[in-house]
Amino acid sequence: MVRAAVLPAVGSPLEIADIDLPEPGPGQVRIKLAAAGVCHSDLSLTNGTMRVPVPAVLGHEGAGTVVSVGEGVTHVAPGDGVVLNWAPSCGSCHACSLGEVWLCANALAGAGNVYAKRSSDGSDLHPGLNVAAFAEETVVAANTVLAVPDGVPLTDAALLGCAVLTGYGAIHHSARVEAGETVAVYGVGGVGLATIQAARIAGASKIIAVDVSPEKEELARGAGATDYVLASENTAREIRGLTGKQGVDVAVECVGRAVTIRTAWESTRRGGRTTVVGIGGKDQQVTFNALELFHWGRTLSGCVYGNSDPARDLPVLAEHIRAGRLDLGALVTEHIALDGIPAAFDNMVAGKGGRALVLF
Fold it and tell me: Beta-carbon neighbour count of residue 65 at 10 Å?
C-alpha cells in the first residue's frame, strides 16, 4: 500500500489516498519515486483540456529507484536510478518509422490500462500519462524507464522527464537556434526556464523573456535572459524595439493561449520561426490572414515533447549538466510534499514561480 494523488474525475480536486500496487508482471518495472515535477500538463488533465481515463494517478515527470522487475526486463535492475519517459515510442507506427518518435501514435496507449486499485474500495485506477508519478511507488512498462545519467542527482533527474527535454528540444530540435540569433521566450515557468537555459547554451545573442509577473524577472535573468518584458498589448512592439525594429529570429511560446501565440508570431522577424510548446484548449483559436502569411514569410510550428528522443538526448543533457552549462536546480522554486500538489496547481494558474518539485 502506497500513498498517491488520485484524480477521481475530471474537474474534481485531487485526493491523497492509499493505493494497492501489484508486483511487476512481464515487461514491467516497480519504482520507488524520489521526486516528481508538477507540470502544467497535469493541470490540463484535471480540467479536461487534455483527456485522461479516470480515476487516475497523475504525474508524468519523475525519477526514482528500481524496486523490482518483471520477467524479460534486462536493461535495468533493482537499485538502479531511473528517469520516467511518459511518451515511449512503439518503434513500429508511421511516425516512428520516420524517426519522429515524439509523434508516436501509440505513445499513450498505456494510459488506458488499469494499473492499481484504490485501497479503500478496490476501485480501478489508471496511470495518468502512462507513469503515475504522483505516488510513493509506481509500476510502469519497461519502455518508460531510462537509466539516470552519471553525475545527475536523482531528485534533479525528475526534471529531465519533461521540462528539460521539452525546453531544450524546442530550441535545439524544433526552432534549431544558431549561435548569434535572437530569441524570445513566452512564459517563465518550468519549461520556459529550461528553454531560456537552452537558448543560452545554443549561443543566442539576445534572449528576451516575457511573462505577466514582474516577480519572475530574477528567475529569467538567472537562467540566461538578457532582457525581460512584462506581457501587455504592446509586447510585440517592445520586442521589435529591442531588436533593431526587426523582431527576434525565434519566438518560443510556452503558455498555450491564443493571444500569446499570436503575440509570439508578431514579435518574430520577417522570415523567422515561431515555435509553440504550450498546450492550449480547443477554444483557443488563432487566426491569420492570407496576405500576412505571404508577406512575413515566417514559419509557425508546433512542438511535441521538444521533438525529442529521450534515449538520444539524455546523454547530451547530462554532459551539459556535468559541465555546468545546464542547472536543473534553477528551474525549481518550491519543494513540496504529495499533499502540496493542489496548491502548486493554484500557483500555476496564478502565474507564480517556476517548477514545484514533489520530494518523497
Answer: 18
Yes or no: say if 355 and 336 are a contact pair by the CB < 8 Å rule.
no
Report CA dihedral (23, 28, 30, 35) to the nearest 10 degrees: -150
Query: Measured in whole angstroms, how far is the alpha carbon of residue 127 from the centre of its chain?
Result: 17
* H or E segment and range at residue 218: helix 217-223
Q: Is 49 helix (H, G, I), strand (E, B) or coil?
A: coil
In whole angstroms, give the CA distance from residue 186 to residue 255: 7
List, for residues 53-80, the tens digit of each pLDDT value: 999 999 999 999 999 999 999 999 999 9
- Residues 169-214 have pLDDT tens digits of 999 999 999 999 999 999 999 999 999 999 999 999 999 999 999 9
Q: What are phi and psi of 50, to 5 degrees?
A: -115, 145
Phi and psi based region of residue 130 (left: phi greater than 0; alpha: psi -120 to 50; beta: remaining): left
Residue 59: name the closest of 132, 151, 142 by CA. Answer: 132
CA angle centred on 158, ends 340 and 185, rounded to 5°: 90
Among 183, 154, 177, 77, smallest CA distance to 321 is for 154
pLDDT at residue number 52: 87
Q: Tens digit of pLDDT for each residue in 116-135?
A: 999 999 999 999 999 999 99
Give the 3-state secondary structure of residue 146. strand
* CA atoms lying within 13 Å on the CB side of residue 102: 20
